[in-house]
Amino acid sequence: MKKLFKTSLLVLIVLSWSACVEEDPIEPDIDSREKFIGTWSVQEKIGGQVTGAYQSVVSNDAANTSRITIGNIYNLGAGSSITAIVAGNSLDISSQVVTGITIQGSGLFSGERFTLNYTANDGSGAQTVEAVYSK
């Protein structure tokens, strides 16, 4: 009887102890696109030379939860936009034609801004563009 009591007591202690072990908290899903969303001031360089500054609006792509829409790309106007795939802090811009200009490249979010590096080709030759987006 004492042996059964000791065994039962040991089992009860082990079960009580295991119930007190903290579990890792469940993190809510974080949308990695959110840091890119908003109105940005863009400073653009082509071939290393500053070519101008303009505004761009970046929004979520409603059709694809891993994609954003970047408006006024290459300072082509508010109605001119491209899509980019977001993976963490990185962007991938697949080849897209906007107002007759083929744009393709990538980007990286760092600190409070992101930089796009892409080529823009209107058919007469590709230009290398670096666009820094800051708020």
Q: What kind of sheet is the major sheet?
A: 8 strands, antiparallel, barrel
The coarse silhouette is elongated
Counting DSSP H or I runs of 4 or more residues, the number of helices is 1
Return Rg in Å.
Answer: 26 Å
CATH architecture: Beta Barrel
Word description of this protein:
- 13% of the residues lie in helices and 52% in strands.
- With 135 residues, it is mainly beta.
- The protein has one domain: Lipocalin (Beta Barrel), CATH 2.40.128.
- An 8-stranded antiparallel β-barrel has the order 1-2-3-4-5-6-7-8.
Entry summary:
The protein is mainly beta and 135 residues long. The chain has one helix and eight strands.
SSE layout:
Elements: H1 2-19, E1 38-46, E2 49-60, E3 67-71, E4 81-87, E5 90-98, E6 101-110, E7 113-121, E8 126-134
Antiparallel strand pairs: 1-2, 1-8, 2-3, 3-4, 4-5, 5-6, 6-7, 7-8
What would the keywords be for this entry?
8-stranded antiparallel β-barrel, 135 residues, Lipocalin, mainly beta, 8 strands
